[in-house]
């Protein structure tokens, strides 16, 4: 495999009061309404030396416009994925072979009106919705599917 490193990353499973999780449609895949990979969980890179719990709230605010949530659980492991061969050297700035991710389950404390995708001048997402946790793996691109399956299993206690 590639000699490139993994990019440190955090991800958020943001649960509403009904136990559904927020998924957002990638702005670079606007026609992917039902396609695997068009929808994903908020996630993003960590700054050097940044605490993962701080990073996940920062990333949520950057990507979905709110950090109005409480952390329910931190996944005990760093979960890794490798990019497909055709994306190595292209995706993630061409500097990484994939990502190592620290995932968090969070409870959303606000209202749907607080979720704003239009605050970033270059938004990553163009739509969002609440989805059943069990539906996550089918939404993921194939190279992230195993992580979404693991998250759906390991954070099932927070689902409705």
Structural notes for this entry:
- This protein is of the alpha+beta class and 160 residues long.
- It has one domain (8-158): Nucleoside Triphosphate Pyrophosphohydrolase (Alpha-Beta Complex).
- It contains three helices and eight strands.
- The chain has helices at residues 52-64, 136-139, 145-154; strands at 6-15, 21-26, 39-40, 43-45, 69-74, 79-82, 98-108, 125-131.
- Strands 1, 4, 5, 6 and 7 form a five-stranded mixed beta sheet that branches. The chain has a three-stranded antiparallel beta sheet with strand order 3-2-8, with no helix packed on it.
- The radius of gyration is 15 Å and the shape is globular.
- The protein starts with 5 loop residues before the first strand and ends in a 6-residue tail after the last helix.
- The model has no long low-confidence stretch (mean pLDDT 91).
CATH superfamily: Nucleoside Triphosphate Pyrophosphohydrolase
State the share of residues found in helices, binned by percent: 10-25%
> Strand tally, please?
8
Summed over residues and divided by their number, the pLDDT gives a mean of: 91
Approximately what portion of the residues adopt beta-strand conformation? 25-35%
State the domain count. Answer: 1
Protein name: RNA pyrophosphohydrolase
Family: Belongs to the Nudix hydrolase family. RppH subfamily.
Function: Accelerates the degradation of transcripts by removing pyrophosphate from the 5'-end of triphosphorylated RNA, leading to a more labile monophosphorylated state that can stimulate subsequent ribonuclease cleavage.
Cofactor: Mg(2+); a divalent metal cation
């Amino acid at each position: 495999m590639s000699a490139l490193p993994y990019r440190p990353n955090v991800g958020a499973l943001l649960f509403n009061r009904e136990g559904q999780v927020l998924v957002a449609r990638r702005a670079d895949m606007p026609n992917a309404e039902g396609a695997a990979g068009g929808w994903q969980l908020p996630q993003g890179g960590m700054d050097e030396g940044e605490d993962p719990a701080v990073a996940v709230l920062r990333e949520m605010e950057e990507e979905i416009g709110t950090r109005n949530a409480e952390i329910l659980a931190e996944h005990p492991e760093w979960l890794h994925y490798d990019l497909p061969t055709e994306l190595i050297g292209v995706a993630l700035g061409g500097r990484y072979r994939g990502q190592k991710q620290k995932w968090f389950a969070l409870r959303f404390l606000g209202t749907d009106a607080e979720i704003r995708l239009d605050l970033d001048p270059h938004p990553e997402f163009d739509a969002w919705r609440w989805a059943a946790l069990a539906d996550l793996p089918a939404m993921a691109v194939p190279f992230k599917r195993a992580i979404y399956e693991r998250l759906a299993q390991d954070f099932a206690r927070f689902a409705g």
